[in-house]
Amino acid sequence: MEAFKYAGKTSSGGIKKGVIEAASREEAVAILRQQGVRPTSVKSKPKDIEIKIPGLGGGVKEQEIVIFTRQFATMIDAGLPLVQCLDILSSQTENKIFAKVIAAVKQDVEGGSTYADALRKHPNIFSDLYVNMVEAGEVGGILDTILNRLAGYIEKAMKLKKKVKGAMVYPATVVSVAIIVVAIIMIYVIPVFQKMFSGFGGTLPAPTRLVIAMSEFLKANILYIIMGLVAFVVAFSQTYRRNEKFKKGVHIVLLRFPVIGALIRKVAVAKFTRTLGTLISSGVPILDGMEIVARTANNKVVEEAIMKTRTSIQEGKTISEPLAETNVFPPMVVQMIGVGEQTGALDSMLGKIADFYDDEVDNAVAALTSMLEPLMMVFLGGTVGFLVVSMYLPVFRMADMIH
Hints:
Blueprint: E1 2-10, E2 15-22, H1 25-34, E3 37-44, H2 62-77, H3 82-92, H4 96-110, H5 115-120, H6 128-140, H7 143-198, H8 206-242, H9 244-256, H10 260-281, H11 286-295, H12 300-314, H13 320-325, H14 331-343, H15 346-402
C-alpha cells in the first residue's frame, strides 16, 4: 500500500484535499471517484522522516483511544457515514502511528470489511474486548451507544490502574532512595572513617568492624553486584513471560501476601465484574465474554478460575455456582451474581459490584499507603542510623578513655 496526496472537486462543487492509501495511483483515483470526488491532482506522498527515541512515543496511549472512541460515537450519532468518520479522525489525530492505523482501518472498510473485522487486524491497539463490543454494536445497530460505553469502560479501567500504580510508587521511591543513600555512605563516607580509625590502635567495636567489612566488600564487588542484580531481573522477567507454571506460582504467592494479596484480589474482582458486565450489556454472548475476561485478567489464578466457570456454563450450570467452587471470588460477590442471574439483571448487578469494589480498591490503597509510610521511614531511618552510630562508637569510646 502507498499513500497519495490528492485534491479534487466534490459533487457539490467544493474542494477536498487529503491523503488516501492505495496499491497504485490508478486505484487511488478509482476509490476517490467512488467517494464522489473528481480528482484534479493525485501524487505520491513523501515518506515522513521519523526519529524514534527509546522510551518516548512509539505507541498509542489509552487516553488517545478513549478520545477517538468518543469522537467516533458522536459522528456516528450525528449520521455521518463510517468511512467519512474514519477519514476525518485519521487526518486530525496527532499521533502518526495511530493516524496510520485509522487510515488502514478506513481502507479495509472501503474494501468491504466490517468495522470490527478491520479493527481485528490491529490487536496491539484494539483489544479483543473492544473488537467484540464493536461487532455486537454493528450487529445490533447501536454502534454509537456501544462506543460511548466502551469509552466509559476504558476510562474506569485507567483510573483503576492508576490507583494501583500510585500505591506502588511511594514504597518503590523510598526503597530506591534508601539504597542510593546507603551505597554512597558505604562507598565514600565509611572509608574516610576507616582511615581515621586506623591510627587509633586497639580493637574497634563489633558494629564498626561489621560496617567497615561491608564497605570493603561493596567497594570491591560493586560492579559484580550490579551485574548480578541485572541478570536476576532479566532472568526473572524472561522466565515469568515464558513459563506459565512459574507465572502461576508468582501469582499464588502475591495473592497470599498480607494486605497486598487483598488489594490484588479486589482489583481482580473489580476488573472481572466491570468487563463482563460491559460485554453482556453490549450483547456479547456470555461464553465469548467469559473467554475475553479470562484473557484480560493478568493473573493466572483468576484466569483459570474464570475458564473453569466458563466450562461449567457450557455444561448448563449457572455462573455463580462454579464461581463459588473456585474460592477466588468473595462469597458476597458470588451471591450478588446469583441474584443478578435469578432476576435477569446480571449486567446491572455486575456494574454495581464493580462500583463497590472500585471504592474497596480506594480503601485498600489508602490502608496500604498508611501502613507502608511508617515502615519505610523506620527502614530508612534505622539503616542510616545504624551506619552513623557504628562509625561514632569508637569516638565515644575514646571520649570515655580521656575522662
